[in-house]
Amino acid sequence: MITTEIKGIPLEFITNSGVFSPSGxxxxxxxxxxxxxxxxxxxxxxLGCGYGVVGILASKLIGEHRVIMCDxxxxxLELAKRNAVQNGLVGENIFKSxxxxxxxxxxxxxxxxxxxxxxxxxxxxxxxxxxxxKLASGGKMIMVxxxxxxxxxxxxxxxxNIRVDSIExxxxxxxxxxxxxxxxxxxxxxxxxKKLEQKLKKRKR
Length: 205
Hints:
Layout lengths: L1 E5 L2 E5 L13 H7 L10 E4 L5 H10 L4 E5 L2 H13 L7 E3 L11 E6 L8 H12 L1 E11 L3 H11 L3 E5 L2 E7 L5 H23 L1
């Protein structure tokens, strides 16, 4: 059992050896949370929730109905549900999802993630690209990792903006979805190109 306090909220977490950081809340996650202000109007996605630290804290601060937690691990999800109850919540907002594939909402104001390490960044790439489409305009994706260059370049390429905070060996990345976001423009350009291609084909017939 982990007993801790984050942002003035006392919390308890049941863990086991099969999940990430079982002996204490990960320092990277704490670094990320130090840069997050949860507002009463936020809609939060805890992407890759593990045993539930971020999502449970957010639920305690702004209400469980404004937070969704997801993970691909059945073990992590079971612990997250137990920990929700352990901390006075219901735990009905916790779902199994391979990345964002099982998430239908597209109006999050915050997507928070401490992504799993992957040598070719394939998981992080999916999180970032799909996460962009799941944010409301003005919404932010906030990620924490121990690696800087790839994440900084990828987030800037997709969102068109990036803030990087270095905290005790971790990097906290914050990108906001705006009307000028590069990825949005690229998708629109591809869509228009397809329409033009279809028109040209029709004219040739």
